[in-house]
Amino acid sequence: MKRLIKKSITAGHGSATFQDKCIFSPSDVVALLGQIEELQKKSIGLAPDKDGNLLLIVGDNQYVMTDKAQMVFV
Fold first, then answer.
1. CA-to-CA dists, residue 36 to 31, 51, 58, 72, angstroms
2. What sections of the chain are H helices per DSSP?
3. Under a CB-based contact definition with an 8 Å cutoff, are residues 38 and 27 in contact?
4. Cβ-count burial of 26 within 10 angstroms (0-12 exposed, 13-18 middle, 19+ buried)?
5. Contact 54, 43 (CB under 8 A)
6. How far apart are CA 56 and CA 16, in angstroms?
7. For the whole model, what pTM was predicted?
């Protein structure tokens, strides 16, 4: 059974301003995680949940990457 972990995933450095923040696409995050040696034996992917959130799936764990209010399509 997969367990859902409700945590925000953010990256930043101290009191970063808007211009100092990096933006990664979901596929960039999956590609980056796929290069981490400790995660190479785990399945890594993305999937929507029933509420329209984007989930990052690593092995048996699911992480909410966004919610509908924060999701931006470019």
1. 9, 30, 12, 27
2. 26-34
3. no
4. middle
5. no
6. 25
7. 0.57
pLDDT above 60 (res 44) = yes
What mean pLDDT is reported for the chain?
Answer: 75
| C-alpha to C-alpha distance for 12 and 63, rounded to whole angstroms | 18
Q: Quick one: tokens of 48? A: 């929507």
- Whether 3 shows a pLDDT value over 70: the answer reads no
Q: Which of 27, 71, 73 shows the shortest CA–CA distance to 51?
A: 71
Of 3-17, 20-34, 38-52, 57-71, least confident by mean pLDDT is 3-17
